[in-house]
## 1
Amino acid sequence: MAHQAGGQRPAPRPVPETCETQAYLQDYGALLDYLTCPSLVVDRRWNVVMANSAFETLFRGVRPHPTAMPGDNFLRFVLFHPDAGEILGEHEAGWCLPMLVQLRTALERYGHDHELQAVRRDVAQDPIMEAAFRQGLPHWIRAVGEAATRLDGAVRLLLHPDPRRGRTECRIVEESPQRLRELGYRRLSLVLRDPRRPAAAVRRPRRQRGTGSHLTVVPATDS
């Protein structure tokens, strides 16, 4: 039904125990594999419920990580995996900060959720990321506008491992049918744009593999 980028998770995530729902999700997974663009279905915690082979291809080169594999939890991958910036271009402004906004929104809606609270605690362990979450986000949102923080419709830079693609842009499209929404899931697709079109320049400072924080745009501050 689904490919898990970066390896298999130890056990499948639970879904409602009805034959109809299982059949629907199996068919939906088959639909994803017809798509040529990387696509994934996530729950409210950003756990990856299913993803297609194009998604697996995009992230096939990432190194193993105990908690932040792209096929397990996409939020954790963006925020914590040391290889994320090697694929997600302009990683800080284009991906990290918008995903911190997604985390904040999810916590506002589901503040009791243990998995989201665990992500929040991990953010707090990184002084720069914590400063971005607590003090930096309001300033950044005022600077770029609320629309720039949304994922649906956003154009982001990708550094695709396929040399025929290479450095290219994608448009993030969120499109979830009602049945998927009723299950608490949503689908995101990274629609790859024509690689012949010039992409925005990468302004992300070069970071050594394996270093701690992903963020440099928001300095750590004493609170």
## 2
Amino acid sequence: MEFNQKVIVVTGAASGIGLALAAAFVREGAAVIASDRNEVLGAQKAQEIGARFVPADVSREEGVKALIDDVLAREGRIDLFCSNAGIGVGEGPETPDKTWDLIQRVNVMSHVWAARHVMPHMLERGDGYLLNTASAAGLLTELHSAPYAVTKHAALAFAEWLSITYGDRGIKVAALCPEGVWTPMIQNAPILQQTAITTDELVGKTLAVLREDGFLITTHPTTLKGFQLKAQNYDEWISKMRHLRGKAMALLHPQGEETRA
């Protein structure tokens, strides 16, 4: 896919990965519609990069539908829909149900709702691209938050299903699965900060895969190495993850008092 003169929607575009992607697509000559639930910051950042801003709360289906309807009414089509918004909340099984519900809505159902409402338009045209931001946690795991690990596995599984089901009908799908990236998301995860890359580096890797109509986008060589070990020897992989979690918790709680389950 080339991006010049394409209509591209990016959710979660007020900061972090979403903002970096939106800015890059603008530089590539696309008509970019940036969206975020933070109306003030989102509108400010969109103006700075030269994108049109549409506020939307993607934790609600009506928010996702309204965003898509707005773009189809104004721009007439959507060439690439970047379902990027995501949150990292919760710890272990003690995490309240309302928190599980919220992260499920944002990290999984927002992708489902996006596909539900943009897919008919793309299928009618016989062309379209969905970029769903998952995480390396979808291939591996997340050491701090069970809800994050679970929902990112689900987000990746849904992207796979979409690609398998609609790939022969002109619809392309990509799953963005980064490890640590310098965004607010990793401010409380010092182990991810040790190998974190910049959003500019992530953008470069993402656009390179999209240009080739690819599916899987990773940012660190350790991701696929870990995924291969997981497939080849699950017990060994679990053992390594236990060891890595111990290191992560020691960095998070240097006094040796682990507060997370």
## 3
Amino acid sequence: MSADLGRLLGEVGAVLLDFDGPVCSIFAGYPAPQVAAELVDVLRQSGVDVPPDLASEPDPLEVLRRASATGDQGITRAVEDALCAAERRAVDAAEPTPYAREVIVAAGQAGIPVAVVSNNSPGAVTAYLAAHRLAGYVSSVVGRAYADPGRMKPNPEPILQAARALNQLPARCVLVGDSLSDIQGAQAAGTTVVAYANRPLKVEAFRAAGADVVITSMGALASALLDAELDGMR
């Protein structure tokens, strides 16, 4: 796997990191099902008749998508605002992913620019990076488009936006993500994809989805980036 990563990194000009998973677990201290339940309450307060499947939905982003499906932009904005506020609170108790810091720093030292491309709000991502003294290593943050969940990954738009921000062709970028939507978005954008399988069951699913490389620890990517840095110094 390290050889595959080494070859892959030798051909890319930028690293694009998903946030929740590869960088941190944003809802580690403020569980996602709790946030989702709070967003469902916002829907109820807005007069939405909430069906049972939505009432028990554990994913805040899915609640936002369902809010958008009402076709009422006022309701979508209300849920978006509540989610943004919850994410900003969540980053205070977010759990850093092991070796994520090393990946970000090593990429910079190897001369490879880094962007974060996330379905979480840009304010939450920026706050986390600042709190963990990583902002100086990240050249661009592309977060969730406000009240427009259809533009989240797997839509390739945020990935393409990040590539443009780094002045790189999509084919010269690698996206590191931990979900099928990351893989699908990267493939649609024309970027290489390293799938971070942070749970054993994801490994085969990511391989079947066509990820270029599957890793089970961000440490593998950090090591490959350190090797790339050393090769550049020789």
## 4
Amino acid sequence: MKRSIVAAVLLLHCCCAVWSHAETVHLSAAASLTDVCKELIAAYSAKQKETKVLTNFGSSGALAKQIEQGAPADVFISASPEWTSYLADKQLAAPGSEKPFAGNSLVFVGSATTAALSMEQLNTLKRIAIGNPQNVPAGKYAKQALEKVGMYAALEQEKKFVLTEDVRHALMYAEHGEADGAFVYKTDALLTKNAKVLFTVDAALHDKITYPMLLTAAGAKNAAAKAFCDYLSGPEAKAVLEKHGFAANP
């Protein structure tokens, strides 16, 4: 009986030791980074078995506001500098921790049976999926491009836009034929088998697409978060980014 009690105590002690050494990193990242981040986390976790990375993917604006409202986040990767600046202004980012993570480009996709078209022909379509420009960087870049060519106001007035909560939902609308086409990132278009690129948006029509990364104020106190950030800036991460179609040196 005494031996059983001793064994149980030892087992509990060992479990507590393991739990005490386990480290958690909360990552909030733009929806367009979902697949590449999952691969990076798997590779990192294989080497750093004591670290568990928990993810939260969504539109950059929504994620930043969640962090502002107290959602757990150690590392934040935005699809636009606008939202890392937002956290910095709120004093929710670790000073000096922001660094470039990746770059991308904007394309317009439609169903596999849709004939190729140009931006100037978008007015011939009935429904155009676009991330809500207020929160979704891909939508903001698309709006900038359409405004540059003088089309945004007319398309909006004709109620042709289907606003989505993030870029992946815009892609889904095009894939399922619920919209005639959608503005998405090139990397999103590479993932789909049910849609094709109809045209690439001229990069001169919108702000440069960069994904900045930072430690939050909470993350600055988390050694595991700092180590994970270092990994995301390293050569292995850059190779994975390039494999997924991102620019690793934006």
